[in-house]
Design a protein that fits this description.
Elements (H helix, E strand, L loop, with lengths): L4 H13 L4 H16 L18 E7 L6 E7 L8 E3 L3 E7 L1 E8 L7 E9 L3 E4 L5 E5 L6 E7 L6 H4 L1 E3 L4
Antiparallel strand pairs: 1-2, 2-9, 3-10, 4-7, 4-9, 5-6, 5-8
Helix pairs in contact: 1-2
Bound molecules: fe (ii) ion (FE2).
The site of fe (ii) ion (FE2) has 4 residues, from strand 3.
């Protein structure tokens, strides 16, 4: 499958950003994600496919140098992530639909305490440094929602190198 022009532009923008100091990196990654989440719809159908069991994660792009990966996450109605933090930097842009982000804090290994929620409509952007935010993303709307996620790990490390899970027990 050939890479859509918009995805190549996003990957090029992130590739140029990851070598910058943190402020510049965040600014440039946000700009690249803004470009990719507004305007023309470009995500191929097979990368917009929901999974009825849980939110779907589709790899869109793995940086050949292993510096970052780009995924589309497809959230059917009622689906949500676990409560998690990140081992790596992470940027999110909502591509389609409406998501709800819930923030938490956790001290001394205790169960996370909810701080509040934010609505994330299409075009909404966020950027988190490693070990900063603890959150959960979910779809409480009546329609499928899609978000683009960029993580600072190689594609073969997405399963184990990104999320740090918290138990609510
Ligand atoms: Fe996250």
């Amino acid at each position: 499958m050939s890479i859509p022009t918009q995805l190549q532009r996003l990957a090029d923008g992130i590739g140029a950003a990851v070598g910058l100091a943190p402020d510049g990196m965040e600014r440039e990654i946000r700009a690249a994600l803004r470009d990719a989440t507004t305007g023309e719809r470009w995500l191929p159908l097979e990368r917009r496919r929901a999974n009825h069991e849980r939110y779907a994660r589709h790899l869109l792009y793995g940086d050949p140098a292993g510096r970052f990966s780009v995924l589309s996450l497809v959230w059917d109605h009622g689906q949500e992530s676990p409560i998690h933090g990140h081992h790596t930097w992470c940027a999110v842009g909502v591509y389609d639909g409406d998501l709800t982000e819930t923030h938490y804090r956790s001290q001394g290994g205790r169960a996370p305490v909810e701080l509040g929620t934010a609505q994330r409509a299409a075009g909404s952007l966020s950027f988190d440094l490693p070990q900063s935010a603890i959150h959960r993303i979910g779809n409480r709307s009546g329609a499928v929602a899609i978000s683009l996620h960029v993580y600072g790990v190689a594609a073969d490390r997405i399963a184990t190198g990104v999320n740090r899970l918290y138990s609510t027990a």
